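=== RUN LOG ===
request id: a7f3
mode: sequence -> structure
chains: 1
length: 241
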Amino acid sequence: MGPGVVVAVVLLTALAAAVHRWALDGGWLPPVTASVRAVVQLAVVALLVSQLGQNPWLALVFALVMFAVAVVTSGRRIDPPRWWWAAVPIGASVLPAAVILLATGVLPFNGLALIALLGQQVGGAMTTTSLAGRRVLAELEVRRGEVEAAVALGFEWRPARLLVSQHTAREGLLPTLDQTRTVGTVTLPGAFVGMMLGGASPVEAAIVQLVVLVSLVAVGAIAAAVALHLCAAGVWGRRNT
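=== RESULT ===
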């Protein structure tokens, strides 16, 4: 902590903006705006969590706010006119995972614990939903002729779309699977490092990180599957009639 943090953040933002502008031809503004938003939002969240962390019910309300933001973000990435459907894969994936963790006592009904774990699950579901949904829609668009051919052979629209795009939905789960497979060998995830810095033993930190990663795999698998079926049903994307 200290002035070095400010210097590091500014330099890293400038580096990202320069690469985004000159190497990726995407302009310098997106990395800058993303970094500024992160600063503002984290400052607000830090103040809120310091208060909400004392009350588990208020923490659940905050988790609902995170859920709403995730729905808007993911839905607009996939199909802006029907963005609200993102609530289905995100909710369907986070709810069972949270219930299992609460029912087994692994997740205490504590404000800070609820915000920390539910926030990671909602974020994971959002990312997987966006990746799977966009990938499936792109595949359906590219292979539209194959879908129509399958329908001409007697398939209904939904099974025809699944036949063509089912394998692509799995790609939305790849980041989570790779992180889980390589934990401890390539990366040391945030929960593990955070607990270690907070004074927990390596064993305790490893157990918590294991729970987080396994729950994220379950959340991601459900989110990808539900996003796939929304696309196959014609809820998202170009509709065939």
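=== NOTES ===
Residues 128 and 175 are 8 Å apart (CA to CA).
The two ends are 59 Å apart (CA to CA).
=== END ===
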